[in-house]
Design brief:
The chain is mostly helical and about 575 residues long. The protein has 26 helices and two strands. It has a two-stranded antiparallel sheet with strand order 1-2. Strand 1 and strand 2 form a beta hairpin. It starts with 15 loop residues before the first helix and ends in a 10-residue tail after the last helix. About 30% of the residues are buried.
């Protein structure tokens, strides 16, 4: 409920809201009030309010833009990458369209038209050096896909050269760029390209254009030649008038001539085309399925085609399924084998160790913060310097120091052996495990717990505890019932800060954690920098973000975020 100090209706002084109401009341009673320039007062005040709001927006605009660019945009990009899967459909467009009607549960291989689409797509992808990237993407889902695409890309010419050699033996014109350009290219484009070549310009070539009607006569050859011509112009910076087309174009022409009737064709290079039409019936040929199976027998595996079909949509849930130890199958999502489930264990370990680190920081930091808040200012300042001293040392140096301290031939073990508490042959294993990670991270994050607690404790009046004691409370009772409840907001603030920092740490666990003390963040870093599986890394990061938000919501419901403060 608002009081007189905050409710605009009860403030008697001049405010924009009250001025607007006064102007509206005057309009009803005596007609519109006018400003000094003759403008109705209500309109003038509205314009003034808009100016004030715009000025306020301009003041916060730099901060707002900074937050959007450095915080909101990266999170949005992460969420998008966790479901984005356009590489398959963009690299293999013909294959994904033809594969859409294939029933992966039937046990039969796809039809010949699917193999044909794959041959065209893979040939073009190899020319653009995109097939290895696609293979790497699919290798995340099925082992061996990367090598399959590399081998296939290197061997596609073995199939296309069958047709290229026969066309060249038929007529050497099929080995030249000019007849192809006249057969396929628009006359106006040819004239522009000739002028460009004659001028020896270094600018952008005129964009290749197909001749009207050629797609109706030779649909496969026209499409593949258009791709070749534009690739030659953009990637190779060569003129299509001088470049012999790919063997893929000759392959496409063969299949067009086997199906089409070009007897009535009377366009450019009609004699050349009709002579080829009459001869292709005697050409040696191989089906696309036979050619691809000869290149690699894995193209005869339904598992390979099932993987291609499952990941052909532009968006996929596969990354999130992998992040929770599941996988996509022809029958729907399914759990991975027991020996492949690692991410669930890593999430559990991350949450458990983050909570242990948080409680360790509370137990160690509370007495220090209490001491800081009760000591005289001179002594408190000296202790505060000691608390802040770790911030003046590199995180990497502090972590490496713990590695030296905790190892079996390290300082701590040497002291224990010297004291006779541990035998020389029974030195403690305190590194490359969870214990080492907890110790090192507790030391690193301890100041982040002490400072919020100290800021709250320093505002608690000492007279409260003295009053409780004067009323008969013991020291323990006064602390438990008077002092401690007032310090809880500081504990809450420090706990949130330490827990959020701990759950996302990866440098310290990487150095001292070994195989049992690493966090999920280490796996995220691995996929970003080493395996380059950014989609899985984004999915793991998104799940971690959701887990943190859920824990934050639970904390708010149980403790209340309003009870968290940093002093004051």
């Amino acid at each position: 409920m608002s009081d007189a100090s905050t409710d605009p209706d009860k403030i008697e002084g001049p405010t924009p809201d009250n001025a607007m109401r006064a102007a509206a009341a005057a309009d009803r009673d005596d007609g519109p009030m006018l400003a000094a320039d003759g403008t109705p007062l209500k309109r003038s005040l509205a314009r003034s309010l808009r100016v004030q709001k715009m000025r306020a927006l301009m003041l916060i605009a730099p901060l707002l833009i900074f937050v959007l660019v450095t915080f909101i945009a990266p999170i949005g990009d992460m969420l998008f990458r966790s479901v984005e899967n356009q590489i398959v459909s963009e690299t293999l467009p013909r294959t994904t369209r033809a594969l859409a009607d294939w029933d992966s549960t039937s046990g039969d291989l796809p039809e010949e038209r699917v193999y044909e689409g794959l041959f065209y797509d893979l040939f073009i992808a190899e020319a653009r050096k995109e097939h290895t990237r696609l293979g790497t993407r699919l290798n995340y889902e099925q082992t061996g896909m990367s090598s399959l695409f590399r081998r296939s890309g290197r061997s596609l010419d073995d199939v296309s050269d069958i047709y290229l050699d026969q066309f060249e033996d038929l007529d050497e014109a099929w080995d030249e760029g000019r007849p192809w350009a006249e057969l396929m290219g628009d006359p106006e484009w040819i004239a522009e390209q000739e002028a460009f070549d004659a001028a020896e310009d270094e600018g952008q070539m005129p964009r290749f254009q197909l001749r009207d009607g050629i797609e109706d006569v030779l649909p496969r050859a026209a499409s593949t030649y258009e791709t070749f011509a534009r690739f030659a112009q953009v990637e190779d910076e060569d003129s299509p008038l001088d470049e012999e087309p790919w063997g893929l174009v000759h392959t496409a022409l063969y299949y067009d001539l086997m199906e089409a009737d070009v007897a009535s064709y009377d366009g450019p290079q009609a004699d050349l085309l009709q002579a080829a039409d009459a001869a292709v019936g005697g050409f040696e040929s191989v089906t696309f399925k036979e050619g691809l199976l000869e290149i690699d027998e894995d193209w005869g595996s339904t598992e390979t085609w099932t993987t291609l079909q499952m990941y052909s949509p532009d968006y996929t849930s596969g990354y999130f399924l992998n992040a929770v130890d599941m996988q996509k199958t022809a029958d729907g999502p399914a759990l991975r084998d027991a020996d492949e489930r690692i991410y669930g264990l890593l999430f559990q370990r991350t949450l458990f160790m983050s909570l242990v680190i948080t409680f360790s920081c509370i137990m160690l930091g509370y007495p220090v913060a209490y001491l800081l808040s009760t000591l005289p200012a001179r002594s408190a300042n000296l202790l505060m310097i000691l608390v802040l001293l770790p911030f003046w040392t590199s995180l990497l140096v502090r972590t490496s120091a713990w590695k030296v301290m905790l190892q079996q031939q390290g300082v701590i073990n040497d002291v224990l052996v010297w004291l006779g508490l541990v035998g020389d042959g029974s030195r403690l294993v305190m590194i490359n495990n969870q214990f080492g990670t907890i110790v090192a991270m507790t030391h690193i994050l301890l100041p982040f717990m002490i400072l919020p607690m100290y800021s709250v404790m320093s505002t608690i009046p000492p007279s409260y505890v003295r009053a409780a004691k004067s009323l008969g409370a013991t020291n323990i009772t006064a602390f438990r019932r008077v002092y401690f409840p007032q310090s809880v907001p500081g504990i809450g603030a420090g706990s949130i800060l330490v827990f959020i920092l701990a759950i996302g740490y990866y440098i310290t666990p990487e150095i001292v954690g070994g195989t049992t003390g690493t966090f999920i963040s280490n796996r995220i870093a691995y996929h970003i920098s080493s395996s380059l599986n950014w989609g899985l890394a984004a999915a793991l990061g998104s799940i971690l973000l959701v887990v943190v938000l859920v824990l934050y919501w639970a904390y708010d419901r149980i403790v209340g975020i309003d009870n968290v403060k940093l002093g004051g």
